[in-house]
Write a structure and sequence with these properties.
By secondary structure, this protein is of the alpha+beta class. It contains three helices and five strands. The chain is globular and about 40 Å long.
Length: about 150
C-alpha cells in the first residue's frame, strides 16, 4: 500500500496531493480568464526546482508534509503569483508566510501522529495548475481546469 494508507488512518488519497500556491476560495466565472493567465505567466517564467519532505506537522484540522524549498524558487513563484492575484482583486494574502506543504490528512480531533517520513528523496514539480475544488461528504474533490508547464 501507499505511505499514507500504511501510516495515516483516514489519510487523503494520493491523487489529491498538491502544493497550494494560492487558495482563492469561491470566485465568479468572469474572473477565470485573468486567473488562468496569471498562473500561465508565472509558470512559464519559473525554471524547474526541487522540493523535499522535511517533516510531518499537524495544524488545527490537517496533517501535512512540510516541504523544503532550498532554492527559494517555489517561494518566489507563490509570492509573485499571490501579488499578481491581489492586484487583480481575486486574492487576499494570508497573514502567515507561504509554507510549501502537502495536506495528507484531515481530522476533527488532532491525532498527534508521528509517522515516518515517506522515502521520496528530492522531487521536481512538473508545473502549476489551476484547480476547481468541490466539497463532498468524503472530502474535497479536485478538477484540473488547466495545467501550465514550468520553463525549460
Amino acid at each position: 500500500g501507499s505511505w499514507n494508507a500504511r501510516h495515516l488512518e483516514g489519510g487523503r488519497p494520493v491523487e489529491s496531493f498538491h502544493v497550494t500556491l494560492a487558495f482563492l476560495g469561491s470566485r465568479p466565472r468572469s474572473e477565470l480568464d485573468s486567473i488562468l493567465s496569471a498562473v500561465r505567466v508565472f509558470a512559464a517564467e519559473t525554471p524547474p526546482f526541487e522540493l523535499r519532505v522535511l517533516r510531518y506537522r499537524e495544524a488545527r484540522s490537517v496533517g501535512m508534509l512540510v516541504l523544503g524549498d532550498e532554492s527559494g524558487s517555489g517561494t518566489r513563484l507563490a509570492t509573485g503569483l499571490q501579488t499578481r492575484l491581489e492586484r487583480l482583486g481575486v486574492y487576499r494574502r494570508e497573514t502567515r508566510p507561504w509554507l510549501p506543504h502537502v495536506t495528507v490528512l484531515r481530522f476533527g480531533k488532532r491525532p498527534r501522529l508521528d509517522p515516518p517520513l515517506p522515502a521520496l528523496g528530492p522531487f521536481v514539480p512538473s508545473g502549476a495548475a489551476a484547480f476547481l475544488s468541490r466539497l463532498h461528504p468524503t472530502g474535497a474533490r479536485y478538477e484540473v481546469l488547466e495545467s501550465f508547464p514550468f520553463a525549460q
